[in-house]
Amino acid sequence: MSDVSGVVLVTGAAGALGGVVCDTLTAAGLTIAALDLPSPHLDQLVASGRAAFALGLDVTDLGALRDAVRTIETNLGPITGAALIAGGFVYTGPLHLAEDDGAAAMFHMNVDTVSRGLRALLPGMVSRGGGSVVIIGARPGQRPWTGAGMASYTASKAAALALVQATAAEVVDSGVRVNAVLPSTIDTPRNRQDMPQADPRRWVSPESIAGVIQFLLSDAARDISGALVPVYARA
Fold first, then answer.
1. HEC profile for 27-77?
2. Does 1 fall in a domain?
């Protein structure tokens, strides 16, 4: 899409989905600032030209995120878009068997990452009168019955989606858009390893998700905010 331009921050950039998102957005002409925990994979994004800038940090640390936003904008210019991909999954089992630490970990990974990412990014976007943020949700967050057996994860994703829609309503008049993409099972090496009996041909590809993110960041989606976009494939 030729109308995509500017600097885009990507969290979770060193992961299987994050790397594909960086590739897709870079190919579309965007300047990518990649954030993730420090790792050789993160460094390789810049070395290979898949990102223009990379910072290793904990994206649940609001102070570190705010510092990262300032550093990125000093080096690359104003952040016009963001893909908040960082999150996680810990199997906690049915709710009546779950321990508090597992449930807390799910909310830390899947709600704090979204909340703090938005809080770091939105002040600048609102003051400039524009910007687009896309969050990665999950199907159980919108269809909780599909998350039976992992209630803590499902609740964390539902909370993240509520945060997306409430925040979208708060900033819509400033010209800033906030949306979420909701994949089913993503076809990644880790998921293939963890679910060897499943048919990955029914899963959604990272490239498909990245294409939806690219669209939502573009001016073609200028009238879309607060949307929860399902990307389920056949799963």
1. HCCCEEEEEECCCHHHHHHHHCCCCCEEEECCCCCHHHHHHHHHHHHHHHC
2. no
Q: How many distinct structural domains can be found in the chain?
A: 1
pLDDT value of residue 1: 41
Residue 115 lies in a domain: yes
Rounded Cα gap, residues 171 and 140, in angstroms? 26
Strand partners, 83: 10, 134
Neighbours of 97 (CB within 10 A): 10
The CA distance from 166 to 28, in Å, is: 30
Q: Which pair of structure tokens corresponds to residue 218?
A: 């573009």
What global pTM score does this model have?
A: 0.94
Order of all β-strands in the sheet with 176-183: 53-56, 31-36, 7-11, 79-84, 131-136, 176-183, 228-231
In a domain? residue 143: yes
The per-residue pLDDT for 5 is 66
Does some domain include residue 95?
Answer: yes
Pairing relationship of beta strands 79-84 and 131-136 according to DSSP bridges: parallel
